């Protein structure tokens, strides 16, 4: 628990992380914490009151611009995936953000003390690859109970009268004990685009999503709440979202894991990406318009018994 020289609790600490990159540590009274790098405005750690890490960060993650950090919660903007001349998942995740000197006032009337406001604006360099002016404001909040909240506000500040379009994702890497013992609930019966099959559209048939091979799917028009159940750890992650209609589910499995240089060969067993996203229908903003999207994560003890998953264990 961090405290100042006067003995008072420090809710927000500005410090340096790997390779001297500036980062912010958020702490709450019960002992939970989160770490946010200004590089990419990326949450790289989220721990509960027992100090257990809830996000996956690769042991091979490279904290060196311009490479994005592998794990945590990268932000995909102004695009999710690959299209046009922009790099995969856009540029927000490998830009240096600033602490927002002037956050919108009505955001600050919450009782939470552990939060940071960051801002990213267009640069002349970025304008060459994405010719728009914008302001992207992000607030990362750690609630007293350990919930992690991220609120994004993106405004079109073009002076040429032109609207712009974007897709978006909070590319959240959850830490799981064993991917083969994980199930995701809340996406049953929904349509999805399968990125392993050229974005072909299918309908989910299972009563829950389980994992035994590579998966890369964008579920469409999803509910505001999704549950990720880690049977081995008897823990359930709850993802709640607003302004983000879709949900991406990704695990590279063994072959692709070996092909990713900043990812350990066997690390796919201990992570699962479930992402609040807007991928199917891009968001359009006219000059002066603002979009807002938020994601809230919590981790709760799971009453579900892992024996129900494997008939051998139930015997």
UniProtKB/TrEMBL annotation:
Record has Isomerase as a keyword: yes
Classification via InterPro entries: Aldose_1/G6P_1-epimerase (IPR008183), G6P_1-epimerase (IPR025532), Gal_mutarotase_sf_dom (IPR011013), GH-type_carb-bd (IPR014718)
The reaction(s) this protein catalyses: alpha-D-glucose 6-phosphate = beta-D-glucose 6-phosphate
Chain positions recorded as substrate binding sites: 70, 88, 93
Pfam families (UniProt xref): Aldose_epim
Active-site residues per Swiss-Prot or TrEMBL entry: 171, 275
UniProt name for this protein: glucose-6-phosphate 1-epimerase
A single GO molecular function term of this UniProt record: carbohydrate binding
EC number(s) given by UniProt: 5.1.3.15
GO biological process, one term: carbohydrate metabolic process
Alphabetically ordered keywords of this record: Isomerase
Family: Belongs to the glucose-6-phosphate 1-epimerase family.
């Amino acid at each position: 628990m961090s405290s100042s020289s006067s003995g008072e609790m420090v809710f927000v600490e500005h410090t340096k992380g790997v390779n001297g990159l500036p980062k912010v540590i958020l702490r709450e009274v019960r002992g939970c914490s989160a770490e946010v790098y200004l590089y990419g405005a990326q949450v790289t750690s989220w721990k509960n009151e027992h100090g257990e890490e809830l996000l996956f960060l690769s042991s091979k993650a490279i904290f060196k611009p311009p490479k994005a950090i592998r794990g945590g919660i990268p932000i995909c903007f102004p695009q999710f995936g690959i299209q046009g001349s922009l790099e995969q998942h856009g540029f927000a995740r490998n830009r240096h953000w600033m602490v927002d000197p002037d956050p919108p006032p009505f955001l600050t009337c919450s009782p939470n003390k552990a939060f940071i406001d960051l801002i990213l604006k267009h640069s002349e360099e970025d304008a060459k690859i994405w010719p728009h002016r914008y302001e992207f404001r992000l607030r990362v909040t750690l609630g007293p109970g350990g919930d992690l909240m991220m609120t994004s506000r993106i405004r079109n500040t073009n002076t040429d009268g032109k609207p712009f379009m974007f897709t978006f994702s909070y590319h959240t890497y959850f830490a799981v004990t064993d991917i083969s013992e994980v199930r995701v609930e809340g996406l049953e019966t929904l349509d999805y685009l399968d990125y392993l099959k050229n974005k072909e559209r299918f309908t989910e048939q299972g009563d829950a999503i389980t994992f035994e091979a590579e998966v890369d799917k964008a579920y469409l028009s999803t509910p505001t709440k999704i549950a990720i159940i880690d049977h081995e750890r008897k823990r359930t992650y709850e993802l709640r979202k607003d302004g983000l209609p879709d949900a991406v589910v990704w695990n590279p499995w063994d072959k692709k894991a070996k092909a990713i240089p900043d990812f350990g060969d066997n690390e796919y067993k201990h992570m699962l990406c479930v992402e609040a996203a807007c991928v199917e229908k891009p968001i359009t903003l006219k000059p002066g318009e603002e979009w807002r999207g938020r994601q809230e994560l919590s981790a709760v003890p799971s009453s579900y018994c892992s024996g129900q998953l494997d008939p051998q264990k139930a015997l």
